[in-house]
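hey so i finally got around to running the thing on that chain from the lab meeting. sorry it took forever, my laptop kept dying and i had to restart like 3 times. anyway pasting the input first so we r on the same page abt which one it is
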Amino acid sequence: MRKLNSQETLLLMITLGLVLCFIVYKLVIRPMQEGASDIDDRIKIASHQILKARQIVAQKSSVEAQYQHLVNLIGVANADSEEALMPAIIAKIEAAARDSNIHIGNIQPQKSIVQKEARFLTVELEVDGQWLDLVQFFNSLQQEPNFYFINELNLEKYSYTTNALRSRIIISRMYLVTP
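ok and heres what got predicted. didnt touch it at all, straight out
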């Protein structure tokens, strides 16, 4: 192999320098830049989460006030209070029936349904009355202070001589579960 002249040596050095620069850029500088941008993205996401958390903490008093309003409006129940709450629920249903001129034929408490934050006390009842009286009764069950959910409703005309209707209805009342 012959010895390279000075121009060829200079050209070889420049080429090796460029190849070395390219390798350093691909293997060192570019991964560092990508890592830095990834870290910047993580910092932006974390700062956004912190900002949201601060906003939630700032709203703590209003959220607590709304929760307390719901507790006062809906009520709180635990496992021990179901036996105490059911007679009150039945009494409210009977009072609404009296106000609406409805006759309750049968009333049966059902098994309560417990979800994560709420307990639903369920009652099945059979009522007789005129159409408008039934509508008034259903409306009074759903309005304040009762807040009953109508889960199931069956209407049937049981007498051909009168306009009386018989209804089988399953209603439930939600209570918040104490933590």
